[in-house]
Write a structure and sequence with these properties.
The chain is an alpha/beta fold. It has one domain: Glycoside hydrolase/deacetylase (TIM Barrel), CATH 3.20.20.370. The chain is 42% helix and 14% strand. The chain contains 8 helices and 8 strands; from the N terminus they run H-E-H-E-H-H-E-H-E-H-E-E-H-E-H-E. Strands 1, 2, 3, 4, 5, 6, 7 and 8 form an 8-stranded parallel β-sheet that branches. It is globular and about 45 Å long. The two termini are 13 Å apart. It binds zinc ion. The site of zinc ion has 5 residues, from loops.
Length: 204
């Protein structure tokens, strides 16, 4: 059990139709509301890995994400890399991140963490674990931060996705514009292909 919890999750095993879309680097008032509305229209649940700095700036959006039934996770305060920092520094980052989210939505359970850039050391994961957080990476990267058009994201994700995938998107400044644009069409296509979109709190 301990080993399992110390190993980052990239894909959910044993799934036949569910996938797990995730959004990093928000909340952002340019893209997050549109993304929430698209998810709602599609009857989809998702997971948002929130930056503490953004959560402090946009508490109402944090609340809105939680109230819509999506999972919330930590992503650091300002997207500073964590893998070479000492335990004390990382612990403070995650505590501040947690407090920023709790200030916006006190009753929401937050048990997930995704390190900025997906880079970590085992010390990073142990600190997260000591705070009751499960470290989550991704199995499929939408590459929205370097896509040249929304259609590129659409084509790539549809061709690559399989059941159990944890799919990385962004609702922040890098990628949020294209992801928010393509999401209605992409969610329709995924649903038409038999995929069900669930939040990670349902399975982790
Ligand atoms: Zn990020």
């Amino acid at each position: 059990m301990t080993n399992r919890l110390l190993w980052p999750v990239r894909k959910v095993a044993g799934e036949t139709s569910r996938i797990f879309v995730t959004f990093d680097d928000g909340p952002d008032n340019r893209y997050t509301p549109e993304i929430l509305s698209s998810l709602d229209d599609a009857g989809a649940k998702a997971t948002f890995f929130l930056l503490g700095g953004r959560a402090r700036a946009e508490p109402l959006l944090v609340r809105e994400i939680a109230d819509a039934g999506h999972s919330l996770g930590l992503h650091g305060m300002q997207h500073t890399p964590l893998w070479f920092r000492n335990r004390k520094w990382v612990r403070q980052q995650l505590l501040d991140n947690l407090l920023a989210i709790r200030a916006a939505t006190p009753d929401t359970v937050v048990e997930l963490f995704r390190p900025p850039y997906g880079r970590f050391s085992f010390s990073t994961i142990r600190v997260a674990r000591s705070l009751g957080l499960r470290t989550v990476l991704w199995g499929l990267n939408s590459r929205d931060y370097r896509a040249t058009s929304p259609d590129e994201i659409f084509t790539y994700v549809l061709s690559a996705v399989s059941p159990g995938d944890i799919v990385l998107f962004h609702d922040g400044p890098r990628g949020g514009d294209k992801t928010s644009h393509v999401l209605p069409k992409l969610l329709s296509a995924l649903t038409a292909n038999g995929f069900e979109l669930a939040s990670l709190a349902d399975v982790l």
